[in-house]
Amino acid sequence: MFFLCRKLSLSRFRHHFPLRLRRFLGENPNPTTHFSTLPDNQTKRPEKSRLDGVEHKTLKVNGINMHVAEKPGSGSGEDPIILFLHGFPELWYTWRHQMVALSSLGYRTIAPDLRGYGDTEAPEKVEDYTYLNVVGDVVALIDAVTGGDKAVFVVGHDWGAMIAWQLCQYRPEKVKALVNMSVLFSPRNPVRVPVPTLRHVFGDDYYICRFQKAGEIETEFKKLGTENVLKEFLTYKTPGPLNLPKDKYFKRSENAASALPLWLTQEDLDYYVTKYENKGFTGPINYYRNIDRNWELTAPWTGAKIRVPVKFIIGDQDLTYNFPGAKEYINGGGFKRDVPLLDETVVLKGLGHFLHEENPDVINQHIHNFFHKFL
Questions:
Q1: If you placed Cys at 164, which of 49, 108, 129, 156 could pair as Cys (CB 3.0 to 4.6 Å)?
Q2: Which residues contact 29 (CB under 8 A, 6 or more apart)?
Q3: How many CB atoms lie within 10 A of CB 234?
Q4: β 310-315/55-61 pair status
Q5: How high is the pLDDT of residue 7?
């Protein structure tokens, strides 16, 4: 899970009354934004996606061995490609429902384990997990699956969304159109170093701050147990800051349900657990340890805009949607200013951070309907 506010200036949150009043009166200040209430069957367990026909391969990209899952479409060789980029703590597997559904509609669907995750190589150095490294992997992967001369559709979630935003800044010619979920575009603020700012606003227990010291959180996760850690992250649905106070986090109240949500089976959880027990958490957490380094490296893109067609989808129960300033950024015109080709922002009521797994049918429809415009 990851969200970094653009400004993180506390004073900017004091002037919300006019916006709230407009909402109360029924006016939508941003015509590209709409709220969607899911049908009554949203709480039903998603049908198990048949993964028959998913091909697994290892490709050499940008100097590392990358595991890639692929489910072909019609097999004609001309099928449009959708590249799926996962977040934390996920794997290619998080896109299983999308791969099955969209390949049946004629798309060639491709989902890698990103650098440091799952069956993809995990470099040892912390500094090998910057935006530039990971976007370099993605560009090399696009070249490998297209022959180097075609653009692809991209779908991102969480850290995958962050990587997708950066891909569109550095190499927009590689992206036909983008569907991003959960994490808004975060323009670089030239005067605010991210992690110290987050520490000032949220305190030392904020999860991003807790991830900074090499080895520390991994030791705590090991004591807690891989399955418990993944279960708690994947089922987190509190629309507020995620804090991890030492020796006190992931403590459920006595009345809190311990059962898995309908969208996450024990079989799904077991798959994640197996991969994280084999690889560990260090590679994925190294992404967080490069947040300030990314800020330094991306100085040349200060003020840059996203100039590819975009649809953005977020759940109203997602901690990222409830992050200070997020709703104002969406509804006040800032998001559209920074992403001029933003086609639509969809806020799905009742869904949390893992919306593409919580209600895959709705997400699959949004993805197809948007990408179909560019075929």
A1: 156
A2: 19, 22, 23, 331, 332, 333
A3: 22
A4: unpaired
A5: 41
Cβ neighbours, 10 Å, residue 292: 14
Give φ, ψ of 54 to 5 degrees.
-75, 125
65 HSE (CA, 13 A, CB side): 6
Whether 143 sits among the annotated catalytic residues: the reply is no
Over the chain, what HEC string results? CCCCCCCCCHHHHCCCHHHHHHHHCCCCCCCCEEEEECCHHHHCCCCCCCCCCCEEEEEEECCEEEEEEEECCCCCCCCCEEEEECCCCCCHHHHHHHHHHHHCCCCEEEEECCCCCCCCCCCCCHHHHCHHHHHHHHHHHHHHHHCCCCCEEEEEECHHHHHHHHHHHHCHHHEEEEEEECCCCCCCCCCCCHHHHHHHHHCCCEHHHHCCCCCHHHHHHHHHCHHHHHHHHHCCCCCCCCECCCCCCCCCCCCCCCCCCCCCCHHHHHHHHHHHHHHCCHHHHHHHCCHHHHHHHCHHHCCCCCCCCEEEEEECCCCCCCCCCHHHHHHCCHHHHHCCCEEEEEEEECCCCCHHHHCHHHHHHHHHHHHHHHC
Q: 86, 97, 353, 356: which is the annotated catalytic residue?
A: 353
Tell me the C-alpha to C-alpha distance, in Å, between residue 210 and each of 3, 207, 226, 231, 255. Answer: 15, 5, 17, 19, 27
Is-catalytic flag, 15? no
288 in catalytic set? yes
Mean pLDDT by 10 residues, the chain (375 residues): 45 36 38 62 56 94 98 90 98 98 97 98 98 98 95 98 98 98 97 97 97 97 96 92 84 58 96 98 98 98 98 97 96 98 98 98 98 97
Q: Single out the catalytic residue among 117, 131, 170, 288.
A: 288
Q: Which two tokens stand for residue 91?
A: 């794997």
Per-residue pLDDT, 4: 52
CA-angle at 196, arms to 190 and 198, nearest 5°: 95
- Cβ atoms of 163 and 156 within 8 Å: the answer is yes
